[in-house]
Amino acid sequence: MRRIYNRWMSGTDIQAPPDYATLARDIKRWAIELGFADAGISGTDLGEDEQHLQRWLDGDHHGEMEYMARHGTKRTRPAELEPGTQRVISVRMDYIPPGTANAWDVLGDAEAGYVSRYALGRDYHKLMRQRLQKLAERIHGVVGDFGYRAYVDSAPVLEKALARNAGLGWIGKHTVLINRHAGSYFFLGELYTDLPLPVDEPASAHCGSCTRCIEVCPTQAILGPYRLDAKRCISYLTIELKGSIPEELRTPMGNRIFGCDDCQLVCPWNKFAQMTAEPDFAPRHSLDGAKLVELFAWSEEEFLKRTEGMAIRRTGYEGWLRNIAVALGNAPKSAAVIAALAARADHPSAVVREHVAWALAKQRS
């Protein structure tokens, strides 16, 4: 965190501290002017969430995501991550662009590859960090130098709990944040600050008795309300997992090649989901419904070129082929699919070869 002392000193004159209530209102207005859908302010107490996280880690539900445990309590104690932090400004940004192919239609087309809707366009990390920096600059214009640091899924931050405490939504039974006026299709970002701003009221939960998200999960990764086993989650399997996908989970993956949205697609609150006005989130290369055979034919050079600046890069080329091979195994049997798989049967990667062999066996059975 950028440190500053004698914040309200100007030469030998002592200035009155800012009106923090007015500043908080201005911050929320500026956030919307900068393209965020909403903003809220919370304190730093995450005691109950820390216990919940520890139980999740103790249950070995994080799989290969060892970074979830690596930083100890820095994730749940903001002032340990950034000394001096008193408040967290949380923001959200909608990500579904107008004109995107209907998710259910793509999932229903077994010859197409399903990419989670958040990953169809430009990677949100840099874009949101730039907007948060601009927000910090506006605050600086009023209060002068102050301590802050911007985060967008880039450090050990318990972003959903902080956003809930800032009034931006509640954590649903699928562990995704839900806003009663905008559903759950949005990104989160934070500005840790040493400004003693007034905090907002935490959001109350409104899932009620609904369990649609639990019931729809293709791999039964949601063990119960608020209990996700990442090791079974398709988003984990297609993005975080770097080795072989467990065989028993391959068929339930269907045609999902990067992430999964099913638990959000069935959520009743997403009837209120808002379209984004951010043009950078528009689908690139027709990835909102491209055919699996075509995607599988991409060379590594094509993959790197076409996914430049996109979240899809995170899976890597090997993971990309692995995921598509599974989807091709689940596709309707056809000569075109068998030919596409056979062309990769001798791929240099053992992981790709394994999944291609599995897919070929399924196609030929």
Automatic annotation (TrEMBL):
Binding residues for [4Fe-4S] cluster 2: 217, 233, 260, 263
- Where would you find this protein in the cell? Cytoplasm
Active-site residues per Swiss-Prot or TrEMBL entry? 153
Known Pfam families for this protein? Answer: Fer4_16, QueG_DUF1730
Per the record, the GO terms for biological process are: tRNA queuosine(34) biosynthetic process
- MF (Gene Ontology): 4 iron, 4 sulfur cluster binding; cobalamin binding; epoxyqueuosine reductase activity; metal ion binding
Keyword flag Cell cycle: no
Looking at the UniProt record for this protein, which Gene Ontology cellular component terms does it annotate, in alphabetical order?
cytoplasm
Q: What class of enzyme is it?
A: oxidoreductase
Query: Which co-factors does it depend on?
Result: cob(II)alamin; [4Fe-4S] cluster
UniProt superkingdom: Bacteria
Pathway(s) it belongs to? tRNA modification; tRNA-queuosine biosynthesis
Instruction: Tell me the residue numbers annotated for binding tRNA.
Output: 242
Name the EC number(s): 1.17.99.6
Q: Which UniProt keywords apply?
A: 4Fe-4S, Cobalamin, Cobalt, Cytoplasm, Iron, Iron-sulfur, Metal-binding, Oxidoreductase, Queuosine biosynthesis, tRNA processing
Positions of cob(II)alamin binding: 75, 153, 177, 188, 235, 260-261
Domain 4Fe-4S ferredoxin-type, chain residue ranges per copy: 195-227
Where do the annotations place [4Fe-4S] cluster 1 binding? 207, 210, 213, 267
Q: Copy out the cofactor comment.
A: Binds 2 [4Fe-4S] clusters per monomer.
Q: Which reaction does it catalyse?
A: epoxyqueuosine(34) in tRNA + AH2 = queuosine(34) in tRNA + A + H2O
Q: What does this protein do, in the record's words? A: Catalyzes the conversion of epoxyqueuosine (oQ) to queuosine (Q), which is a hypermodified base found in the wobble positions of tRNA(Asp), tRNA(Asn), tRNA(His) and tRNA(Tyr).
Q: How does it assemble?
A: Monomer.
Could you say which protein family the record assigns here? Belongs to the QueG family.
Name this polypeptide is given: Epoxyqueuosine reductase
Organism of provenance: Rhodanobacter denitrificans
The opening ranks of the lineage are:
Bacteria, Pseudomonadati, Pseudomonadota, Gammaproteobacteria, Lysobacterales
Q: Which gene encodes it?
A: queG
